[in-house]
Amino acid sequence: MDIPKASRPSLSGYINETMLLPWPWVSTRMEQARNYWISTQSRGFPSSRPVWGIWDQSRLLFSSGSQIARNISRDSKVQVNLESGDELVIIEGTAHPLNERDLEFWVREYNLKYSWDMPHSTIDVYEVRPVRVLAWICDSSGQDGGALFTNSATEWNFE
């Protein structure tokens, strides 16, 4: 999947037009994350759950037999968040069952990352392809008055 050109998101009225984060910054955080928060629609309300997964260049692979799987079967739109509020990555995308041709990659990479014996099955394994990605950095002390955020907020649109 080709990575689209980065742009400045319209999150608020005070975004400075200076630095845009590079895609490798996003990809590195996604690769290194242990937990990914998946948000789906459940009975009219958002539902978020942490899952383990594998980041592969511009897609997230994860498994879930919980409410997430039932929600995705009704509505494939998902949001993925990492745990950090200081180095933020938000992925808005669609989740689809993992293709059989990706099964060996999924099992090998998952077992390596989590020291787990993942079954050789695509049941309840999903691939999230981004539609929109937001990323920014924040000063966790709050002492910069939002300067780091306003200078780093970046958006990628895949559609």
Structural key phrases:
alpha+beta, 4 helices, 8 strands
Describe the structure.
The structure is a single chain. The protein is 23% helix and 34% strand. The protein is an alpha+beta fold and 159 residues long. The protein has a single domain, classed as Roll (Pnp Oxidase, Chain A), CATH 2.30.110.10. A hairpin with a 5-residue loop joins strand 5 (77-81) and strand 6. The longest helix is centred in the last third of the chain and has 12 residues, at 103-114.
Contiguous helical run count: 4
Counting structural domains, the number is 1
Q: Strand-and-helix sequence, N→C?
A: HEEEEHEEHEHE
| Class by SSE composition | alpha+beta
CATH topology: Pnp Oxidase, Chain A
Helix content: 10-25%
> CATH homologous superfamily?
Electron Transport, Fmn-binding Protein, Chain A
User: Percent of residues in beta strands?
Assistant: 25-35%
Query: How many beta-strand segments?
Result: 8
Summarize the topology:
Elements: H1 23-32, E1 36-42, E2 45-51, E3 53-55, E4 60-63, H2 67-74, E5 77-81, E6 87-97, H3 103-114, E7 125-137, H4 147-152, E8 154-157
Antiparallel strand pairs: 1-2, 1-5, 3-4, 4-7, 5-6, 6-7, 7-8
Q: What's this entry about, in short?
A:
The chain has 4 helices and 8 strands, in the order H-E-E-E-E-H-E-E-H-E-H-E. The chain is an alpha+beta fold and 159 residues long. Strand 5 and strand 6 (87-97) form a beta hairpin.
